[in-house]
Write a structure and sequence with these properties.
Elements (H helix, E strand, L loop, with lengths): L2 E2 H8 L2 E3 L5 E2 L1 E2 L9 E5 L15 E5 L11 E5 L2 H15 L5 E2 L4 E2 L4 E2 L4 E2 L4 E2 L4 E2 L4 E2 L4 E2 L4 E2 L4 E2 L4 E2 L4 E2 L4 E2 L4 E4 L4 E4 L2 E4 L5 E4 L4 E2 L4 E3 L5 E4 L4 E2 L4 E2 L4 E2 L4 E2 L4 E2 L4 E2 L4 E2 L4 E2 L4 E2 L4 E2 L4 E2 L8 E3 L4 E2 H36 L1
Parallel strand pairs: 4-5, 5-6, 6-7, 8-11, 9-12, 10-13, 11-14, 12-15, 13-16, 14-17, 15-18, 16-19, 17-20, 18-21, 19-24, 20-25, 21-26, 24-27, 25-28, 26-29, 27-30, 28-31, 29-32, 30-33, 31-34, 32-35, 33-36, 34-37, 35-38, 37-39
Antiparallel strand pairs: 1-3, 2-7, 22-23, 39-40
């Protein structure tokens, strides 16, 4: 379906510079723009591409001032990146959705299935499951006994949702996600480790999205909770009884140990590790490969194996390069000091 610059500008409340009748039917990166595509410019590093792009429409920030003529029609908006995200969401939502239950799917008689739900081939929906309206469950997915899935959810192939777990509305789970596997609970005994039954569940609130092969373990007792708006990347481990605050984001290979509570709007970069039973405050940012072994108060930005506040961490990195020279100088000073001590004793 084609959309004109005029239609797009009306939807995003933007200002058109150029041909209001220019039409598009797809998206493209600015350096790969083709006729009939819409792209965006938000990062100044990509500004040179706007003068040569073949894209028909380019979203730009309102303060953008071109240095030379541009072939494309511009739509000026408050935030080009956010506006593009809104348009792409609208585009995805406009695609026709599958409905109905595949012949090879297995759905228990006691399961309650909402309207316009899709259940793909070889999916298994166990006893007592409740699935809300407009939810899409792709092939080879398992939903365990008494699990509840809200409306408008998107569950990709190969997802496993264990018994008694609860998903809110508009939750997206990518392939390989496991929700509600047992927490890592074992008690040492003289004869080895005895498993502690994990009798809790997992609660994912509205608008949570979880990337491929990420695991959220069920609680020992009570619930592991991922609050509204949280976005988790691929290959992340959320342990038993963890609580992740609203709108927190985590990059790949982050691991959160058991019973840690994390506040809202936190940012965890790649390969962050957080010990158990800690409290991570609101608006905390941890840089790549940071390892938190103690609680962190609100608003801190830190990095390093033992996280150091960002300014201190950068100073440490500068000093590390100078350590060999400093070590040689220290040894030289020690020798001089020893010589002075000898002279005094003679």
């Amino acid at each position: 379906m084609d959309f004109s610059a005029q239609q797009i500008a009306a939807f995003v409340q933007g200002e058109i510079v150029g041909d209001a009748n220019a039409t598009v039917n797809t998206f493209a990166k600015i350096e790969e723009g083709k006729p009939g595509s819409i792209t965006f410019l938000a990062n100044p590093k990509y500004a040179p591409y706007i003068y040569d792009t073949e894209a028909s429409i380019v979203l730009v920030n309102r303060d953008f001032v071109p240095e030379k003529p541009i072939k494309a029609t511009l739509i000026k908006v408050d935030n080009a990146y956010e506006t593009l995200a809104r348009l792409m969401t609208l585009y995805e939502q406009s695609k026709p959705k599958s409905k109905g239950v595949a012949d090879t799917a297995v759905v228990a008689e006691s399961a309650k299935i909402g309207k316009d739900v899709f259940i793909g081939a070889y999916a298994v929906i166990d006893e007592g499951v409740v699935i809300g309206n407009n939810t899409q469950i792709y092939p080879h997915t398992y939903v365990g006994k008494n699990a509840r899935i809200g409306e408008g959810c998107l569950i990709y192939s190969g997802v496993n949702i264990y018994h008694d777990c609860q998903l809110g509305n508009r939750v997206t789970l990518h392939s390989g996600v496991v929700i509600g596997g047992d927490g890592f609970g074992f008690a040492p005994t003289p004869n080895g480790y005895e498993k502690i039954p994990q009798i809790g569940n997992v609660i994912l609130e509205d608008d949570v999205e979880i990337g491929a092969n990420t695991c959220v373990d069920r609680a020992t007792m009570g619930s592991t909770i991922v609050h509204k708006g949280v976005k988790l990347d691929n290959l992340i481990q959320i342990a038993h009884n963890v609580e992740v605050g609203p709108n927190t984001v985590m990059a790949a290979q982050t691991g959160i140990a058991g019973s840690t509570k994390m506040g809202e709007w936190c940012v965890m970069a790649g390969q962050v590790g957080i010990s158990g039973h800690l409290k991570i405050g609101n608006h905390v940012t941890l840089g790549p490969q940071s390892g938190a072994i103690s609680s962190i108060p609100d608003g801190k930005t830190a990095m390093g194996t033992v996280p150091i506040e960002d300014k201190g961490w950068f100073k440490v990195q500068v000093l590390l390069k100078k350590l060999p020279d400093m070590y040689r100088e220290l040894n030289a000073l020690r020798k001089e000091l020893d010589e002075l001590k000898k002279d005094k004793t003679q």
